[in-house]
Design a protein that fits this description.
The chain has a 3-stranded antiparallel β-sheet with strand order 2-1-3, with helices on both faces. Strand 1 (2-7) and strand 2 form a beta hairpin. The protein is globular. The chain has 93 residues and is an alpha+beta fold. It is built from 5 helices and 3 strands. It has a single domain, classed as GIY-YIG endonuclease (3-Layer(aba) Sandwich). The protein has helices spanning 22-30, 37-40, 55-67, 70-80, 88-92; strands at 2-7, 14-19, 45-51.
């Protein structure tokens, strides 16, 4: 299981989600295959993710992150991805 954060640009709008297949899910975001918040705001850049063995823990982490203030989320991203690079292509290698 994965918890992930996507955006449209550095310091842009953030979306936090959970999935059991990160590559497939980010592909769906990039190609606007699922209508909703991410397609409305053109959120398709994977800037952060965490891996979980357990679905319950992943869902709890997603809920926790969604309750964080924006600066905490920004700090979390920048600690591992200071340039806000799209991490999707790294997953494909």
């Amino acid at each position: 299981m994965y918890v992930y954060i996507i955006t449209n640009k550095t310091n842009g709008t953030l979306y936090i989600g959970v999935t059991n297949n990160l590559i497939r899910r980010i592909y769906e975001h990039k190609n606007k295959l699922i209508k909703g918040f991410s397609s409305k705001y053109n959120l398709d850049r994977l800037v952060y993710y965490e891996i979980f063995e357990d679905e319950t823990n992943a869902i709890q982490r997603e809920k926790t992150l969604k309750n964080w203030n924006r600066n905490w989320k920004k700090d979390l991203i920048e600690n591992v991805n200071p340039e806000w690079k799209d991490l999707y292509n790294e997953l494909l290698n």
